[in-house]
């Protein structure tokens, strides 16, 4: 076997721990700097500001992103090392992982704190770019690459809707600042349209039906990425945006109803599909779709109670889901298996992990003594307030959650022992334990969590929100709904056949008619179009040149027909040196025609030289000695190079000259005539209408202070010195290119 | 004079376009040279004033507009660089493919692409016949 490149012991994951430290620092900042903010001008002419504020909503998501982030990163230092070892990849590949992970966390905090709609858009897309590189981290695998592209395309294309909404709102209200927009927006068609567009972008990001298909695919990412992406970043970003602009969404009843519908559909589709998945991370991925469906539904219900419930839900779900993902990763690392059917009875062998994962599962299933209980209590309360339909939906949602997460935990940790267990690393279990402890702590002392959610909901509801979650031992509707959900969920757990058929039918229908097919079809069609265009472009250079010349000529023609041109053209006067210039121009024209019609290449080269030198003489006559000198030098060089190139080519056989296809020839002449004619009308018009005044006067005035006599030289070397520098660079690049080509690919 | 300059520049441009459409790569290079000459002539013709060269100018003296001249200088030099690079490329192409005809070059390229596509297809079939190799985590 090859020598281990990392030495006998893998070196410490320094970039990973640095990312972890950054996340901890961010956590402290979000914890203690609440209420801080700043606003700097960014592009004043476009009304853009770098406006950030750490308000309630920002604190909630910031704490989630950095807190969960710190734990996931710590977990990742160990996980990534093992992952790279398994894949026999060098340890330096960490550097392709951690910078993106850190940027992911930073952009999430940026998104949470941004108070400018365009800034929100920028961070929104930044998270998508990070997720692209992280999902595609195992770049040798085709599936990973495809999944990364899918996640990027679905979320980024949908995000364009957000930009459109921002522009719409700016046109209406003259600002991109979110607080002012929320103030100024009145119920109107524009508001509704903008709100709907914002919702589309957010829903695609939160993997809601029908744009949910990218999320299960994103499981191709290493586990720390999944854990982070599902709980605190990327998917959470969508819901965060919904919360940020919620007062705007609430201006339109239609948009709110749409949110309820989409959320409910996602709850059911995600929940039912999660019931029968075999791959661990797939169960959790479909669960995420379903869970974010809850939050979208809550935002759709609207009002103080629902906003509070949504904020609380984000928090509880983030804690539970990241713990569950890390559990799945730890199990797979210890056993080498990633399917429920090949695992079981791990409870006795990894008891600590089993207990911690149990607490996390209980949080998701909303059992008492976990923070999750309150998330469902608040959900039920909001549902009762809205009406019977949402009550049923909420109970169905909670039932499904109880069933699939119960199946997940029982399948992993109970039952007959299956799969061989290696050593589970402490660092892979500790973060799960910490999160589970937080979840249980929240189940006992819910106050701090409720305060966070209250502050966040105050921002998204646009009014003060107070919540008082707690345990009540009475027959209030929330408790009855919770009991009903547990009972039904338990029933599904005991009798899995009840839902087997349904889940399978859902999966089959999804494969058959699902939006993923539309995505694949669109991508394939675009690919074909691109290939066809590319084919035409490269196969026939003449065709592509004519395709530029002819439409350009026609367009110029149309422009001239549409523009009044009477009296716009001037013939000009002929005086003094012009009598010498005119014959020179005639010589240029003759030599040009000779160039075009020459049969022998050498004649082409010589005729070109005649054109060039005649023009050089012309420049001398119009009072441009610098240009004339340079033109002489350039022409001399060019003629020499041209003749040299000709002499090094295989000899041209004059008898081989064939006039070619006459139709083609006529077409060429037509295209050229059209191009020449268009150039003529355009240039004549341009020269007939000189500008009113020139900056040249300024140049003439300033030349003595630049310590020069020749104004042209001073312009080139001083006033436009940077241009000249770039020009020299171009020359240098060209020289390197020529040298390399002449020496057949070797520069030295 | 305006008309005369416009005619000359247009003839340069039209002839350049005609040469660009030719089969022969060398003539395409000639076409590019003519088109850039057309550009330089236009820039010079767009001078707002004509007179003596703008060197050691006394106040109030009538001189040639220096700004278009500076632009023309840039255009000339950049033109030289690109044409030299283009010529080197064309030279290399002709030596390697033993032809300066675009049709023949395109045919060679198409053949090469087809060969690549065949190999890609073979790769794909190999992967697909081994699904375990692809789906393994």
From TrEMBL, chain B:
<protein>
    <submittedName>
        <fullName>NADH-quinone oxidoreductase subunit K</fullName>
    </submittedName>
</protein>
<comment type="similarity">
    <text>Belongs to the CPA3 antiporters (TC 2.A.63) subunit C family.</text>
</comment>
<keyword id="KW-0812">Transmembrane</keyword>
<feature type="region of interest" description="Disordered">
    <location>
        <begin position="108"/>
        <end position="137"/>
    </location>
</feature>
<keyword id="KW-1133">Transmembrane helix</keyword>
<keyword id="KW-0472">Membrane</keyword>
<feature type="compositionally biased region" description="Basic and acidic residues">
    <location>
        <begin position="109"/>
        <end position="124"/>
    </location>
</feature>
<feature type="transmembrane region" description="Helical">
    <location>
        <begin position="29"/>
        <end position="49"/>
    </location>
</feature>
<keyword id="KW-1003">Cell membrane</keyword>
<dbReference type="InterPro" id="IPR039428">
    <property type="entry name" value="NUOK/Mnh_C1-like"/>
</dbReference>
<dbReference type="InterPro" id="IPR050601">
    <property type="entry name" value="CPA3_antiporter_subunitC"/>
</dbReference>
<feature type="transmembrane region" description="Helical">
    <location>
        <begin position="70"/>
        <end position="90"/>
    </location>
</feature>
<dbReference type="Pfam" id="PF00420">
    <property type="entry name" value="Oxidored_q2"/>
</dbReference>
């Amino acid at each position: 076997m090859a020598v281990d490149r990392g030495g006998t012991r893998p070196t410490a994951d320094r970039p990973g721990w640095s990312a972890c430290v950054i996340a901890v620092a961010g956590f402290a900042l979000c914890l203690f700097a609440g209420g801080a903010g700043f606003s700097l001008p960014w592009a004043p002419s476009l009304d853009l500001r770098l406006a950030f504020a750490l308000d309630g909503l920002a604190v909630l998501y910031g704490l989630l992103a950095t807190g969960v982030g710190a734990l996931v990163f710590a977990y990742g230092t160990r996980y990534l090392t093992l992952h790279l070892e398994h894949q026999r990849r060098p340890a330096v590949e960490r550097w392709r992982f951690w910078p993106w992970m850190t940027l992911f966390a930073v952009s999430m905090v940026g998104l949470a704190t941004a108070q400018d709609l365009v800034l929100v858009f920028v961070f929104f897309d930044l998270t998508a770019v990070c997720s692209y590189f992280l999902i595609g981290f195992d770049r040798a695998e085709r599936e990973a690459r495809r999944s990364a592209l899918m996640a990027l395309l679905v979320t980024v294309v949908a995000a364009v809707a957000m930009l459109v909404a921002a522009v719409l709102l700016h046109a209406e209200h003259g600002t991109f600042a979110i607080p002012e927009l929320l103030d100024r927006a009145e119920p109107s068609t524009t508001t509704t349209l903008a709100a709907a567009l914002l919702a589309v972008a957010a829903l695609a990001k939160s993997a809601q039906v029908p744009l949910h298909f990218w999320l299960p695919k994103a499981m191709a990412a290493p586990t720390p990425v999944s854990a982070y992406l599902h709980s605190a970043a990327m998917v959470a970003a969508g819901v965060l945006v919904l919360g940020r602009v919620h007062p705007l969404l609430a201006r339109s009843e239609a948009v709110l109803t749409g949110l309820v519908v989409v959320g409910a559909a996602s709850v059911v589709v995600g929940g039912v599909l999660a019931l029968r998945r075999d791959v661990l991370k797939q169960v959790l991925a479909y669960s995420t779709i379903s869970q974010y469906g809850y939050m979208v539904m809550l935002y759709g219900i609207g009002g103080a109670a629902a906003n509070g419930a949504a904020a609380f839900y984000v928090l509880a779900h983030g804690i539970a889901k990241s713990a569950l993902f890390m559990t799945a990763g730890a199990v797979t690392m210890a056993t080498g298996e990633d399917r429920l059917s090949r695992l079981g009875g791990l409870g006795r062998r990894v008891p600590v992990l089993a207990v911690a994962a149990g607490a996390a599962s209980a949080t998701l299933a909303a059992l008492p003594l976990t923070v999750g209980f309150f998330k469902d209590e608040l959900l039920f309360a909001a549902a009762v307030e809205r009406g019977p339909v949402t009550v049923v939906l909420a109970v169905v949602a909670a039932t499904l959650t109880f069933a699939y997460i119960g199946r997940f935990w029982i399948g992993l940790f109970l039952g007959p022992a299956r799969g061989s267990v290696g050593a589970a690393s402490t660092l892979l279990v500790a973060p799960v334990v910490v999160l589970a402890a937080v979840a249980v702590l929240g189940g006992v002392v819910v106050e701090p969590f409720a305060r966070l959610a209250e502050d966040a909901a105050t921002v998204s509801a646009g009014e003060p929100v107070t919540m008082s979650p707690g345990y009540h031992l009475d027959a209030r509707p929330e408790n009855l709904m919770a009991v009903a959900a547990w009972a039904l969920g338990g029933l599904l757990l005991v009798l899995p056949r009840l839902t087997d058929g349904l889940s399978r039918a859902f999966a089959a229908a999804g494969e058959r008619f699902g939006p993923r097919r539309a995505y694949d079809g669109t991508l394939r069609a675009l690919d074909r179009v691109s290939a066809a265009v590319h084919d035409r472009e490269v196969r026939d250079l003449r065709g592509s040149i004519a395709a530029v010349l002819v439409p350009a000529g026609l367009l110029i023609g149309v422009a001239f027909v549409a523009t009044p041109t009477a009296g716009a053209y001037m013939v000009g006067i002929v005086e003094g040196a012009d009598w010498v210039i005119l014959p020179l121009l005639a010589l240029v024209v003759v030599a040009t025609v000779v160039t075009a019609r020459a049969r022998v290449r050498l004649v082409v080269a010589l005729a070109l030289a005649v054109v060039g030198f005649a023009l050089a003489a012309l420049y001398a006559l119009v009072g441009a000695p610098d240009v004339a000198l340079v033109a002489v030098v350039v022409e001399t060089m060019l003629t020499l190079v041209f003749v040299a190139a000709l002499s090094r080519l295989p000899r041209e056989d004059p008898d081989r000259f064939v006039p070619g296809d006459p139709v083609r020839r006529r077409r060429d002449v037509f295209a050229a005539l059209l191009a020449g004619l268009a150039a003529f009308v355009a240039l004549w018009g341009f020269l007939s209408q000189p500008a009113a005044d020139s900056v040249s006067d300024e140049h003439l005035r300033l030349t003595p202070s630049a310590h020069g006599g020749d104004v042209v030289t001073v312009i080139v070397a001083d006033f436009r010195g940077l241009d000249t520098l770039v020009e020299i660079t171009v020359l240098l690049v060209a020289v390197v290119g020529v040298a390399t080509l002449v020496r057949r690919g070797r520069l030295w | 004079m305006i008309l005369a300059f416009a005619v000359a520049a247009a003839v340069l441009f039209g002839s350049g376009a005609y040469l660009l459409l030719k089969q022969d790569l060398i003539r395409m290079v000639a076409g590019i040279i003519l088109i850039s000459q057309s550009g330089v002539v236009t820039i010079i013709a767009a001078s707002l004033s004509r007179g003596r060269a703008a060197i050691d100018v006394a106040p109030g003296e009538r001189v040639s507009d220096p700004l278009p001249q500076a632009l023309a200088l840039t255009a000339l030099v950049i033109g030289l660089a690109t044409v030299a690079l283009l010529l080197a490329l064309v030279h290399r192409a002709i030596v390697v493919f033993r032809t300066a005809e675009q049709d023949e070059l395109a045919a060679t390229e198409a053949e090469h692409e087809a060969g690549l596509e065949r190999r890609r297809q073979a790769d794909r079939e190999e992967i697909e016949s081994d699904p375990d190799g692809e789906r393994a985590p």
